[in-house]
TrEMBL record:
<dbReference type="InterPro" id="IPR009057">
    <property type="entry name" value="Homeodomain-like_sf"/>
</dbReference>
<dbReference type="InterPro" id="IPR015495">
    <property type="entry name" value="Myb_TF_plants"/>
</dbReference>
<protein>
    <submittedName>
        <fullName>Uncharacterized protein</fullName>
    </submittedName>
</protein>
<feature type="domain" description="Myb-like">
    <location>
        <begin position="27"/>
        <end position="52"/>
    </location>
</feature>
<dbReference type="InterPro" id="IPR001005">
    <property type="entry name" value="SANT/Myb"/>
</dbReference>
<keyword id="KW-0539">Nucleus</keyword>
<keyword id="KW-0238">DNA-binding</keyword>
<dbReference type="GO" id="GO:0003677">
    <property type="term" value="F:DNA binding"/>
</dbReference>
<dbReference type="GO" id="GO:0005634">
    <property type="term" value="C:nucleus"/>
</dbReference>
<dbReference type="InterPro" id="IPR017930">
    <property type="entry name" value="Myb_dom"/>
</dbReference>
<keyword id="KW-0677">Repeat</keyword>
<feature type="domain" description="Myb-like">
    <location>
        <begin position="53"/>
        <end position="103"/>
    </location>
</feature>
<feature type="domain" description="HTH myb-type">
    <location>
        <begin position="53"/>
        <end position="107"/>
    </location>
</feature>
<dbReference type="Pfam" id="PF00249">
    <property type="entry name" value="Myb_DNA-binding"/>
</dbReference>
Length: 301
DNA sequence: AACTTTTACAACCGCATCATT
DNA sequence: AAATGATGCGGTTGTAAAAGT
């Protein structure tokens, strides 16, 4: 009997009340024997806990579930069972798979390290370099310091040959946008984002501060020794176990205006997972830098 | 239409921990 | 305390379906 037939049989059996009798009377090891299955007990248990259990929620993850996963992961790390315990109807395996196939990639695409939940310094640094090259081609830029895949990119950037007067509006516009975004961060009531004198800690020294106004990511070493695991729905004061990185509230990243304004509509994000371009734009704006369309982030992740 | 590549997810594997003897 | 078995957990793999060429 091939494995599919066995699984079908197992499903058929476990769907009936008989399986509950088996489970009451014996352990997982004896279950397949009693049920006449050519499977080990461990396999049956896994099949039950990850697939056949009647209380498992089916279908795509909701917006709230996704945010919960991200926030819990920022505290718990890859403790999938702990995360699953706070998401009724979802299994650790399901959450783990969803993380690896959806959330992790999305975070990477938007310049966030999925392990530390902090913005990736290399991407931010690249952004600042590109911005500087655009506006101040005569200064700073030393292409030889860039990875080769970036050098071509930088060389494609239109050179501003005009004076700073003409470059001014661009800078002002950029700064305005950035400042508005920063305001958006700090004024977002759902954001736990804090600004505490950490700019010099976060912004790479090579940055031209007049051009790149990155938000000040929160760093509070006093909160890292005993991360408090929040109850579902209570993420106020949420801090990540920072692993030496500055903390960054993913809530701020995922709760984009686009998604937050109409969570119901956000389901389209999941129904049609091809919305990566929208997401790229959306998240990039929040992170204050643009990811060029021609740049394949995965190449250097 | 045929083939290749990518994506998504169930299942597997090995190790850790707990419970029982 | 040690041995053994059951269960839990997280990383990895296999594969069907979808998408791309």
């Amino acid at each position: 009997m091939d494995s599919r037939k066995v699984l079908g049989q197992l499903k058929k059996i476990t769907s009936s009340s008989a399986i509950f009798n088996f489970m009451d009377l014996a352990n997982w090891r004896s279950l397949p024997k009693n049920a006449g299955l050519q499977r080990c007990g461990k396999s049956c248990r896994l099949r039950w806990t990850n697939y056949l259990r009647p209380d498992i929620k089916r279908g795509r993850f909701s917006f709230d579930e996704e945010e919960t996963i991200i926030q819990l992961h920022s505290v718990l790390g890859n403790k999938w069972s702990a995360i699953a315990a706070r998401l009724p109807g979802r299994t650790d395996n399901e959450i783990k798979n969803y993380w690896n196939t959806h959330i992790r990639k999305r975070l990477l695409r938007n310049g966030i390290d999925p392990v530390t939940h902090a913005p990736r310094l290399d991407l931010l640094d690249l952004s600042s370099i590109l911005t500087s090259a655009w506006c101040n081609p005569s200064t700073l830029l030393n292409l030889s310091t860039l990875p080769s895949q970036f050098q071509n990119l930088v060389q494609q950037v239109p050179v501003c040959t005009t004076t700073t007067t003409s470059a001014g509006p661009f800078i002002n516009q950029t700064e305005q946008i950035m400042q508005e975004n920063v305001k958006g961060f700090s004024s977002n009531p759902t954001s736990t984002f804090s600004c505490q004198n950490s700019q010099e800690n976060f912004v790479p020294s090579s940055l031209n501060e007049s051009l790149v106004s990155l938000p000040n990511f929160y760093c509070n070493s006093t909160t890292t020794t005993d991360p408090k695991v929040p109850e579902p729905g209570d993420y106020s004061g949420f801090q990540s176990a920072n692993n030496g990185y500055q903390n960054f509230s993913i809530d701020s990243v995922m709760s984009t205006p686009l998604m937050s304004q109409d969570p119901l509509n956000s389901s389209s994000t999941y129904v049609n997972s091809s919305s990566t371009e929208d997401e790229r734009e959306c998240y990039s704006s929040l992170l204050k830098f643009e990811i060029p369309e021609s740049l394949d982030i995965d190449d250097f992740l």
